[in-house]
Design goal:
The complex is a heterodimer of chains A (311) and B (381).
Chain A (H helix, E strand, L loop, with lengths): L6 H17 L2 H10 L4 H9 L13 H13 L6 H12 L7 E5 L6 E2 L6 E6 L2 E6 L5 E4 L7 E4 L8 E5 L1 H34 L1 E2 L2 E2 L4 H26 L4 H26 L10 H13 L3 H14 L4
Parallel strand pairs in A: 1-3
Antiparallel strand pairs in A: 2-6, 3-4, 4-7, 5-6, 8-9
Helix pairs in contact in A: 1-3, 1-4, 4-5, 4-6, 4-7, 5-6, 6-7, 6-8, 6-9, 7-8, 8-9, 8-10
Chain B lengths: L6 H17 L4 H5 L6 H16 L18 H13 L7 H15 L2 H12 L5 E4 L15 E5 L2 E9 L9 E7 L10 E7 L5 E6 L8 E12 L3 E2 L5 H15 L2 H18 L6 H29 L7 H23 L10 H9 L9 H11 L7
Parallel strand pairs in B: 1-4
Antiparallel strand pairs in B: 2-3, 3-7, 4-5, 5-8, 6-7
Helix pairs in contact in B: 1-4, 4-8, 5-6, 5-7, 8-9, 8-10, 9-10, 10-11, 10-12
The chains are: A alpha+beta (311), B alpha+beta (381).
Chain lengths: 311, 381
C-alpha cells in the first residue's frame, strides 16, 4: 500500500497539467462548446507527448492512464481522452484510431464525441467490436451539456472487428472505471470554481464562504469527491475488476448529483452564466452521470459482481 | 501509488481469518449483534483478547520497547478491519490498543508505562473514556469536572456522561480541570483513574440505542494519587489532541457496515429477492459508501505509515465512515419492511446500534468545520 504518486506518476501528472494549461482550460472549452467542436489540437498535443498511449508503456498501466484522464478532465479538456487512453488499450490491447467513442449495442441514445469519432468501440452482446466510422454513420446532436454528442445509426451491428467472446464485459468494466476517473476530475473542477466564488463573493459584509451553512455543504462535497477519486485510483491500479469499477462509477455518479446541486446553489445566479466558469464542469457532470446506463446500471453491475456468486 | 498488500500483510490477514474462523463460537453472530459494549461481547472479549495477545497480534504495531513488534500501521489497520468485519470480538479493548496505549507511551511516566502497558498488551484490561460532560459535548474544552490537588492526591468532583463501557471498565482515561481559575483549553489535565476507587458511581442511562450503552459516571471526593496524572499538569489538552488523532480513525466501522451488508444480501437471497433491481441498487449504493470510507481511511493510515502529522484528511475519513454506517443501518431497517421493527431482530439491532454514529466521538458538524478549514481553506465565521 502506498498512496503517494511515485516519481514517474508525478512526472506524468505534472506534464499533463502543464500541457493542459497551454491547450485546455475554461476559456478554450467555452469556444469549443459554442461550435459543438472537438479539440483536435489538444488531442494531437496529448498524442505527441505520448500520454494517450501511456497505458501501453513499460512499467505503466491503467493507473497512469487514469492520472492522465483525471488531469485532462479537471482542466476542462474537450477530448475523448478516457476512451483513447484508458479504455481502448485495455480492451483492444492497442491504441485505436482517434477519436474513440464508446457505445452499447441496442442503445440508440446519443454518444459522447460520437459525431467526431473515427472509431466506435461498441459493446455488442458478448463481444466488443471495433468499428471504423464513416461519413453518415453518426448524426450530430446539439446539447448544452459540455460535450459534442452524436447519434449512432442503428445498422452498425456486425460491422468492424470483434475483439472476441467476453470482450464486451471488459469494455463495460473499463468504461465504468473511465467514467469514475473522469467524473472525479470534473467534480474537482466544479468544486474549485465554487470555492473560488465563495471566498471572493461578499454579502452581509463578509465572504459567503465564512458562513457555516455554506462550509458544511462544501465539506460534504469534498468528502464525496475525494472518496470517488481514491476508489477510482484503486480500481485502476487493480485493472478495473468488475465490482471495484462499478462501485467507483456508482459512487462518483451519485457524488456528481450532490456536487452539481451544491455548487450551483452556492454559486448563485452568476453560476448559470456563460461568463462564470462553473457551467463548464457542472454541465458535463450531468452527461457523465447518465452514460453507460447511469447510477442504476453501475450499482446493479456492482451488486451482481459482489453477491451473485456467493452463498 | 500502489494498492496491493505486501506478501507479509496478506499472509497475516489470512492467518487472522483462519484464527477467527476457528476461534469464534457458533453463536457469535448473535453475540456480536448488539455492539462491542454489550455484556455478552465484553464477557467474550475477556477470554478472547488474551489469546490474541499470546499470538503477539493485539499490540504488534506498538514499539518493541513496549512489548509490540514495531509492525506498520497497515498491520494494525488489517487487525482492526478483520475485527470489525466480525463485529469486534475485542469488545471495548480496541480503544486500549488504538489510542490509550499510545497516549501512555507518549506522555506516561516510567511507572505508568510499567503499570498499564503490559496489561493492555496482555489483553487483560478494559478502559473507558471520561470526556463528555452535561455541559461539554462537542465543545469538550468547556469541561468542568474538578480535581483539586491535596496532599499528593487529586480530589475529583463532578460527572461524566455518555460514557460507554463504564460498567465494565477497570480504568478511566479521565479529563479534569486542575486549575479552577482556568478557562477553555488551559488548566485541563488527564488522570488515569482506577474505577474501583471510593466515590465513583456508574449509572446506566436508559436509551433507545440499547441496554448498557450509555452511562453517567459520578465522582464524589474521589482521591486519585497524583502519580496517576498523565503528562504535565494543566496541559492535558495536548495529550487529548494527540490521543484523539489516533482515536478518530482507530475503529474500522466501515468494515462492520460492509459485513452487515453482506448479511443483508444473504437474507435477501434467502427470500429470493436478491435479483430485484431495487434491492441490488440499494445494496450496491451502500457498499460504495463503505468502500469510499475504506479508501479514505487508508489514506490516513498511509500518512501515518510515512510518519507525517495527522491532517484534516482524518476528518474526511471519519465523516465518510459515519455516512457509510448510517447508510447501511437505514437500509437494514428498510429492506424487509416492518419486520425490522421487532425488538431484537437483525435490522433492529443494526439500526439502533448505528444511531449514535454521527454524534459519538465528535459530532459530524465539528468534523465538517475542520474539513472546511483544513482542506478547503475557508475563512472562520
Amino acid at each position: 500500500m502506498d498512496f503517494e504518486l511515485d516519481d514517474d506518476q508525478r512526472a506524468v501528472r505534472e506534464a499533463v497539467e502543464r500541457l493542459a494549461e497551454r491547450h485546455a482550460g475554461v476559456e478554450r472549452a467555452r469556444e469549443l462548446a459554442a461550435k459543438q467542436a472537438y479539440d483536435s489540437a489538444l488531442e494531437e498535443a496529448l498524442d505527441e507527448a505520448g500520454f494517450l498511449d501511456v497505458a501501453l508503456a513499460d512499467g505503466a498501466g491503467p493507473l497512469e492512464a487514469a492520472l492522465v484522464v483525471e488531469a485532462v478532465a479537471r482542466a476542462a479538456g474537450g477530448v475523448a481522452v478516457a476512451a483513447a487512453a484508458l479504455v481502448a488499450p485495455a480492451v483492444a490491447g492497442r491504441s485505436l484510431p482517434r477519436p474513440v467513442a464508446l457505445a452499447r449495442g441496442g442503445d440508440p441514445s446519443p454518444v459522447r464525441f460520437g459525431a467526431h469519432a473515427r472509431t466506435l468501440l461498441l459493446a455488442d452482446g458478448d463481444e466488443a467490436r471495433v468499428i471504423p466510422l464513416e461519413a453518415g454513420d453518426v448524426a450530430p446532436v446539439a446539447s448544452s451539456y459540455g460535450y459534442p454528442l452524436g447519434r449512432v445509426s442503428a445498422d452498425l451491428g456486425g460491422r468492424g472487428e470483434s475483439l472476441g467472446p467476453g470482450s464486451a464485459e471488459r469494455l463495460l468494466r473499463f468504461w465504468r472505471l473511465a467514467l469514475a476517473v473522469e467524473t472525479a476530475g470534473v467534480m474537482a473542477a466544479a468544486l474549485e470554481a465554487t470555492l473560488e466564488h465563495v471566498k471572493q463573493r461578499r454579502q452581509f459584509g463578509r465572504a459567503i464562504g465564512s458562513f457555516q451553512a455554506v462550509q458544511h455543504r462544501l465539506a460534504e462535497c469534498a468528502i464525496e469527491v475525494e472518496g470517488s477519486r481514491w476508489l477510482a485510483y484503486e480500481a485502476a491500479a487493480h485493472g478495473a475488476p468488475a465490482e471495484a469499477a462499478a462501485l467507483a462509477a456508482a459512487h462518483a455518479t451519485r457524488a456528481a448529483e450532490t456536487v452539481f446541486a451544491e455548487t450551483h446553489q452556492l454559486s448563485g445566479a452568476i453560476g448559470y452564466t456563460h461568463a462564470h466558469p462553473l457551467h463548464v464542469s457542472s454541465m458535463r457532470l450531468q452527461a457523465l452521470r447518465l452514460e453507460e446506463g447511469g447510477a442504476s446500471a453501475h450499482r446493479r453491475a456492482a451488486a451482481r459482481a459482489r453477491w451473485a456468486g456467493r452463498g | 501509488m500502489e494498492f496491493d498488500w505486501s506478501e507479509d500483510d496478506a499472509r497475516f490477514r489470512r492467518e487472522l481469518r483462519e484464527f477467527l474462523d476457528a476461534g469464534l463460537p457458533e453463536d457469535w453472530d448473535a453475540i456480536a449483534e448488539h455492539g462491542p459494549g454489550s455484556d455478552a461481547q465484553v464477557a467474550f472479549a475477556r477470554r478472547f483478547c488474551p489469546r490474541l495477545a499470546e499470538r503477539g497480534w493485539l499490540t504488534q504495531s506498538w514499539p518493541r520497547e513496549f512489548g509490540g513488534a514495531d509492525a506498520s500501521p497497515w498491520r494494525h489497520a488489517i487487525l482492526g478491519e478483520e475485527m470489525w468485519a466480525r463485529g469486534e470480538p475485542r469488545g471495548p479493548q480496541y480503544m486500549n490498543v488504538n489510542w490509550i496505549g499510545p497516549a501512555i507511551m507518549r506522555f506516561g511516566s516510567e511507572a505508568q508505562q510499567r503499570e498499564h502497558l503490559p496489561r493492555i498488551a496482555a489483553g487483560e484490561v478494559f478502559w473507558c473514556q471520561g470526556f463528555s460532560e452535561p455541559e461539554a459535548g462537542s465543545d469538550l474544552a468547556a469541561l468542568r469536572t474538578a480535581a483539586r490537588l491535596e496532599d499528593g492526591h487529586y480530589v475529583v468532583n463532578g460527572g461524566k456522561i455518555w460514557t460507554s463501557y463504564a460498567n465494565h471498565a477497570d480504568h478511566c482515561f479521565l479529563l479534569v480541570r486542575t486549575d479552577p481559575a482556568s478557562k477553555r483549553r488551559r488548566g485541563i489535565s488527564v488522570l488515569l483513574v482506577p474505577m474501583d476507587l471510593p466515590g465513583i458511581e456508574v449509572r446506566e442511562i436508559p436509551s433507545v440505542v440499547g441496554d448498557r450503552y450509555f452511562h453517567e459516571v459520578f465522582f464524589n471526593d474521589v482521591r486519585v494519587p497524583e502519580a496517576c496524572r498523565l503528562g504535565p499538569a494543566d496541559e492535558g489538552w495536548s495529550v487529548v489532541t494527540y490521543a484523539l488523532q489516533y482515536e478518530r480513525v482507530g475503529a474500522a466501522r466501515y468494515a462492520r457496515a460492509a459485513r452487515t451488508l453482506d448479511q443483508l444480501a444473504e437474507r435477501a437471497r434467502e427470500r429470493g429477492r436478491l435479483g430485484e433491481p431495487e434491492v441490488e441498487e440499494r445494496l450496491a449504493g451502500a457498499r460504495a459508501a463503505c468502500e469510499a470510507a475504506r479508501v479514505l481511511t487508508y489514506r490516513v493510515i498511509d500518512r501515518r505509515a510515512r510518519g507525517l502529522p495527522p491532517s484534516a484528511d482524518s476528518n474526511v475519513a471519519r465523516v465518510a465512515g459515519t455516512r457509510a454506517e448510517q447508510h447501511v443501518a437505514r437500509l437494514a431497517l428498510e429492506l424487509f419492511g416492518t419486520e425490522g421493527l421487532e425488538h431484537g431482530s437483525f435490522a433492529d439491532a443494526q439500526f439502533r446500534a448505528a444511531m449514535p454514529a454521527g454524534v459519538a466521538v465528535g459530532a459530524t458538524e465539528v468534523q465538517l468545520d475542520l474539513i472546511a478549514r483544513g482542506v478547503l481553506e475557508l475563512p472562520r465565521e
